[in-house]
Amino acid sequence: MSDIEKITSRDNRRLVNARNVRDGKVKTQIFVEGRRLVREALTSDLVINECFVSEGFRDEKLIASLSVSTVKFNELSNKLFSSVADTERSQGILALAARPITGQLGIEENLNSSRARLVIFLKEINNPSNLGAIVRSAEAAAVAGVVVSTKSADPFSAKALRSAMGSGFRLPIWENVTFDEAMAWASTRNLIPTAADISAACSYTESAWEVPRLLIFGSEAHGLTDEELEKIEEKIKIPMQNGVESLNLAVAAAVLMFEAQRQIQISQP
Q1: The dihedral of CA 156, 160, 139, 104: what is its sign?
Q2: Which residues are CB-contacts of 224 (< 8 A; sequence separation ≥ 6)?
Q3: pLDDT in tens, 240-254
Q4: By the 8 A CB rule, do 142 and 115 touch?
Q5: What is the pTM of this model?
Q6: What is the pLDDT of residues 31-76, one digit of tens each?
Q7: C-alpha torsion 199→201→203→208, nearest 10
Q8: Beta bridge mates, 72
Q9: Residue whose C-alpha is closest to residue 129's, from 106, 111, 152, 100
Q10: Distances in Å between the alpha carbon of 145 and those of 121, 138, 251, 252?
């Protein structure tokens, strides 16, 4: 293992910085917590700057993998580690890494170079767990990327990253885009603006998902405004049974993304 520093003070500058990263106050870094997420960060070519472990942490294989790079190791007492961790039942390891830089170009590269035909636009999604879960499903469904609007949760917050389970490290994410900007960009890329609407006549299985689309989701509480829906070219619905009126946002997004991927796979040998 590289040299390890034992930190004993809650006010140590490294711990102060770690808490600031955890709380979203340092926009150039992200907070990666837990064995699985740290492993995902390692295999995703993130630049990991610093690692904190609790006393008695014994995953030697993970430590050895981290030690190959120039990661700075810090050891904390269990109590001190708990003061930095974002979860109540921490796994004894967390890391600070450089915030991924992808954005618009990463999504366009995927549209140009792969079979990806779908881009997701999330408008004012406030729940980081929902946002992270959508990012996870988007990677699994081979979506080109996710566009996140202004006034949305941070897709690289600690909670969103845990829900994305590593997908946030790899899938292109374009942040701070307004609805009108997303629509204008979709027009330049010949993406059909599409959204789920309970009053739509067309079922999601009847849409032709092999054509390029910008699939738009509104906030959990308010959805899309009437004005925004007027600007959307195609509206679809997910038929419900037994009196159920709606699905969780992340579930609905997954249903539509995997139907799109199913049709794309059928249409492309």
Answers
A1: negative
A2: 123, 195, 197, 216, 218, 232
A3: 999 888 899 999 999
A4: yes
A5: 0.94
A6: 999 999 999 999 998 999 999 999 989 898 998 888 876 678 999 9
A7: -120
A8: 50
A9: 152
A10: 9, 7, 18, 17
